[in-house]
Design a protein that fits this description.
- By secondary structure, this protein is an alpha+beta fold.
- The chain is built from 8 helices and 16 strands.
- It has helices at 2-6, 21-30, 42-52, 69-74, 81-90, 114-127, 130-142, 198-210; strands at residues 35-40, 58-63, 93-101, 104-106, 109-113, 146-152, 155-161, 163-167, 171-172, 176-177, 189-194, 219-223, 225-230, 236-239, 242-246, 249-261.
- The strands form 4 sheets. Strands 4-3-16-13-6-7 form a 6-stranded antiparallel beta sheet, with helices on one face. It has a 6-stranded antiparallel beta sheet with strand order 12-11-8-5-14-15. The protein has a two-stranded parallel ribbon with strand order 1-2.
- β14 (236-239) and β15 (242-246) form a beta hairpin.
- α2 (21-30) packs parallel to α3 and α6 (114-127) packs antiparallel against α7 (130-142).
- The two termini are 19 Å apart.
Length: 264
């Protein structure tokens, strides 16, 4: 099916350590390929997408992951790889936005606070670093809300934050819908802030995970440039699961910076 549409189709697999999806996609760009088709989950798709930002190489998604948030945001069938392949073969593409923080692009969302602490602990557990994992989990349990200065396109707000998410699309992580009004091609990011107690924040995300039609409830802001800074404490930031560092950080959007195969 795909060979008939593209003529030449080179197949390569990611390795346990290398090559990564980003390595393979970067090689395809250097070789002058017109498209990179990724069979995998959000992590693999996001890795390849990082190498394709601001190029004319289109990203094709064959969904083989659990949540497929990027595919969902652009309308790719998430439970039918054959239908996704037919969509790619049809050849229609759209240009979507890409978020950026600390020099890292993100396609789903950047998390601040509890969310980033959880990712940091999870990565330490994956590496087998028990002491760091224990320290990260301890920080997660001790975390309390922090006063944060929020600047959105020049307008300043102040709010206590326990958890916040800067969204490029509506869904991120384990299929959480936190920004139902966000579009992945509108040239803006959406900031969703949770400043209440820890148990309430966790309850919101559990409810959103269980009931897929119920977005997590938080205070919402929208803009092209979002800057967050905290006078005290340390709120860690991640971009699509990759730790960037603590606040202060500035989140920006690159409009229509990634070409993706999508329905008409």
């Amino acid at each position: 099916m795909l060979r008939g549409s593209f003529g030449t189709l080179d197949v390569a697999e990611t390795g346990a350590v290398s090559p990564t999806a980003e390595d393979l996609a970067a090689g395809a760009v250097r070789d002058g390929c017109g498209a990179v088709i990724v069979a995998g989950g959000d992590g693999t798709v996001g890795g390849a997408a990082r190498a394709l930002v601001a190029t004319n190489v289109a990203l094709g998604i064959l969904p083989f992951g659990s949540f497929m948030n990027i595919a969902r945001a652009v309308g790719v069938p998430r439970d039918d790889p054959r239908a996704a392949a037919l969509l790619i073969a049809a050849g229609h593409t759209i240009d979507i936005d890409v978020g950026s923080v600390g020099g890292r692009p993100f396609f789903e969302a950047a998390g601040i606070g509890l969310d980033a602490e959880a990712f940091r602990a999870g990565r330490a557990i994956e590496r087998g670093d028990r002491s760091f994992a224990a320290a990260a989990l301890g920080a997660l349990l001790r975390r309390s809300s922090t006063p944060v200065r929020i600047e959105i396109d020049g307008r300043v707000h102040r709010q206590r934050i326990l958890q916040a998410v800067v969204c490029n699309g509506s869904w991120y992580g384990w299929g959480f819908e936190v920004a139902p009004a966000a579009r992945i091609d509108d040239g803006r990011l959406e900031l969703v802030v949770f400043g209440d107690g820890k148990l309430r924040v966790i309850r919101e995300f559990v409810a959103a995970a269980v009931d897929r039609d119920r977005p997590a409830r938080g205070r919402r802001y929208r803009g092209k440039r979002i800057a967050l800074s905290a006078a005290q404490g340390e709120l860690v930031v991640h971009a699509d699961g990759q730790i960037v560092g603590p606040l202060p950080q500035t989140f920006t959007v690159r409009p229509k910076a990634l070409r993706v195969y999508a329905p008409r």
